[in-house]
Amino acid sequence: MISMKEGNVRGWAIENAKAIADVLTGMRFFLSLLIVLCAIVAEPGLLPLVVCLTLIGWTTDVLDGKMARMDQAGKKTWIGDMDFATDMIMIYSGLLYFITAGYLPFWPFFFYGIYAGITAFIWTKKSTIMAVAAPIAAVPIIFSFVHYPIWGFVFVGWIAVDLVINWSDFTSEIHEFIGDVEEG
Q1: CATH code, 116
Q2: Burial of residue 61 (number of CB atoms within 10 Å: 0-12, 13-18, 19+)
Q3: Residue 40: HSE in the Cβ half-sphere, 13 Å Cα cutoff
Q4: Which domain holds residue 20?
Q5: Could you write out the three-class secondary structure of 68-117?
Q6: pLDDT per residue as tens, the chain (184 positions)
Q7: Of 1, 26, 4, whose CA–CA distance to 15 is shortest?
Q8: What's the domain count of the chain?
Q9: Which pTM does this prediction carry?
């Protein structure tokens, strides 16, 4: 049975922070699979659902990072080690949907996917992989504005709220990215 450290929810969350982070990462992987299912259906009208799943996925990413940092013991888990890979699966599952639903042409983005895979294989640095994935991560926002503007505004609003709430985490990630690039 799970104990309630300090007799409250916050204490329980801190005590179980790594497990909660792992559950959130697992949820993001599951959401990515749902996006792949949307890609298999290949229905352009599923765009709002794909955007919604993407936003929920990125919300789990923000929350799992916070929870992992709350883990005072600094536990390492296989699921935690797969966090970045899960992020990439989330990004590229969206790309798959946008290709199969007819929003993007197949061949140029097929070759972009091959380029991304080769780049990740040769240059395994997180910053390099992130830089290659960044244009793909922007695709849901762009097509939201083009086809369902309300979802574009929801997406941008989510980004704005996230930045306001998590500014220090964001700047820390940027510094980590720049440091990784400079190490080169």
Answers
A1: 1.20.120
A2: buried
A3: 6
A4: 5-183
A5: HHHCCCCCCCHHHHCHHHHHHHHHHHHHHHHHHCCCCCHHHHHHHHHHHH
A6: 455 544 688 888 888 999 999 999 999 999 999 999 999 999 999 999 999 999 999 999 999 999 999 988 888 999 999 999 999 999 999 999 999 999 999 999 999 999 999 999 999 999 999 999 999 999 999 999 999 999 999 999 999 999 999 999 999 999 999 998 888 6
A7: 4
A8: 1
A9: 0.90
